[in-house]
Write a structure and sequence with these properties.
Helix content: 10-25%
Order of helices and strands: EEEHEHEEHEHEEEE
CATH class: Alpha Beta
Shape: globular
Bound molecules: NADP nicotinamide-adenine-dinucleotide phosphate
Number of strands: 11
Number of helices: 4
Largest sheet: 8 strands, mixed
Radius of gyration: 15 Å
Length: 156
């Protein structure tokens, strides 16, 4: 089973200049707690944007190239999805934009930190039809003036 996890702006903003836009401590903590012990799948641009491999998680990188320091490289994404979609294990899709877009049709859960801001961005979360999901608010939070809500969408 695939679960997407992302922090998104009101305008679906995800990132800019191959970096994160939102630096929210509680969101980083939520991300770490939620994904620790699981497989995490990311695109090569997101991989190279990280300061280091994500600890206590199997780091799977989608790329046409072999990524030596990754735990695994996936070059045939369709094959990877077909082989893993029915596993009971929760596999986290952690970005970026191109990877979210390709996994969205197959993801059972979307853990979105919905940030009450519309910053400038060059990578965006794909549009999706919220009528096809149950929406559960996990928690509201704020960092100074910046408000955000942790939401879990589950496909109906
Ligand atoms: N807000 C958030 O929660 C969040 C989370 C993660 C990332 N981000 C942001 O998102 C941005 C990066 O997103 P992005 O869309 O530019 O890049 P990305 O999705 O991280 O990586 C794109 C790369 O993945 C590989 N790839 C994608 N589809 C593939 C396929 N079907 N087969 C083989 N390889 C494939 C290609 O790598 P090769 O070119 O190596 O072949 C492609 O260049 C950054 O700004 C990052 O900070 C935000």
């Amino acid at each position: 089973m695939f679960s997407i996890i992302a922090a998104v702006g009101k305008n679906n903003a995800l990132g800019k200049n191959n970096d994160l836009i939102f630096h929210i401590k509680e969101d980083m903590d939520f991300f770490r707690k939620t994904t620790t012990g699981h497989k995490v799948v990311m695109g090569s641009r997101t991989w190279y944007s990280l300061p280091a491999k994500l600890k206590n998680r199997e780091n799977i990188v989608v790329s046409e190239e072999i990524i030596p320091k990754a735990d695994k490289t996936v070059s045939d994404l369709k094959d990877y999805i077909a082989k893993n979609i029915d596993t009971p294990e929760e596999i986290f899709i952690i970005g970026g934009g191109s990877i979210y877009a390709q996994f969205l049709p197959y993801a059972k859960h979307l853990y979105l930190t919905e940030v009450d801001d519309s910053p400038k961005a060059d990578v965006f979360f794909p549009e999706f039809d919220r009528r096809n999901y149950r929406r559960k608010t996990i928690k509201h939070g704020n960092q100074g003036e910046l408000k955000y809500t942790f939401v879990k969408y589950t496909k109906k």
